Each structure stands twice: as C-alpha cells, then as structure tokens.
C-alpha cells in the first residue's frame, strides 16, 4: 500500500522560503518517481517538479525553474521541494504524487495523467 504524506506548508511573506516534504511508504520498486503538483483556486492543477530514481533525472516547470529545487533522501524515501523567492502567485495546495513505472522525470511535463498515488496536500500561502 503506497502512502504519501506532505508536510511543511504554511504562511510566508513574499520573497520567503519554505521546504516541503513528501514522505513515501510502500514503494516496493527501486524505480519510482515523486512529483510535486499544485492547485490554486480557480486554476488547473499544475505539475511543477519531479525526481526519478529510474535515471536520476529531475524536472521543473518553467513557472518554478530557478526558484524551486527538488531533492530526496535515499534512505528514507522522502522527497523535498525547496521553495525560494515565493510570490503570491505561488499560493496553492501542494501535492506530491508517485509514479511506480520507472518513467524519467521529464514525463511529468508531457503526460497530463502522470501520477498513480497522491498525498493529501499541504497549503502554501504567500501573503504580506
């Protein structure tokens, strides 16, 4: 049973930073990928970053490239998303999702249906 639990969200001022965590359990394969999505009110869900163990690749959407950084703890199966230089447009519920089919990270950017398992989400609010 795959379970994903996000944490680390909160209220920050513009220009601030947060680090989100996605703790995964039940990943029985060595080839998996964890992706981060976000959804703001009235907007479509957006895939923003991914890291894959299949080839060690990472992916960033243009909207966050240069500001966010994804990484993982190999022993704990935990994936982090460092959110830097936040602006109010980053306000959203942030979700992590898992792919267990061994796709490279870039697949997230071309597959609207990417993601087999989802966490509950964590709220990020950027406001002064």
Q: What percent of the residues sit in helical stretches (DSSP H or I)?
A: under 10%
Overall pLDDT level: 95
**What gross morphology would you assign?**
globular
Q: Count up the helices.
A: 0
Given as residue ranges, the uncertain stretches (5+ residues, pLDDT < 50) are: none
Query: How big a fraction of the residues is strand?
Result: over 45%
Estimated radius of gyration: 14 Å
Report on the biggest sheet: 7 strands, mixed
Number of strands: 11
How does the helix and strand content classify structurally? mainly beta
Distance between the termini: 40 Å
Order of helices and strands: EEEEEEEEEEE
How would you concisely characterize the structure shown here?
With 128 residues, the protein is an all-beta fold. The protein has strands at 3-7, 10-12, 18-25, 33-39, 46-52, 58-60, 68-73, 78-83, 92-99, 117-118, 122-126.
């Amino acid at each position: 049973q795959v379970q994903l639990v996000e944490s680390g969200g909160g209220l920050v001022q513009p220009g601030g930073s947060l680090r989100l965590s996605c703790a995964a359990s039940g990943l029985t394969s060595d080839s998996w990928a964890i992706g981060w999505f976000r959804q703001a009110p009235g907007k479509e869900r957006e895939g923003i970053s991914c890291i894959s163990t299949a080839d060690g690749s990472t992916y960033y959407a243009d909207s966050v490239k240069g500001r966010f950084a994804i990484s993982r703890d190999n022993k704990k199966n935990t994936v982090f998303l460092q959110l830097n230089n936040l602006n109010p447009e980053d306000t959203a519920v942030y979700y992590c999702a898992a792919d267990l089919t061994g796709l490279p990270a870039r697949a997230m950017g071309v597959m609207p249906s990417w993601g087999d398992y989802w966490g509950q989400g964590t709220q990020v609010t950027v406001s002064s």
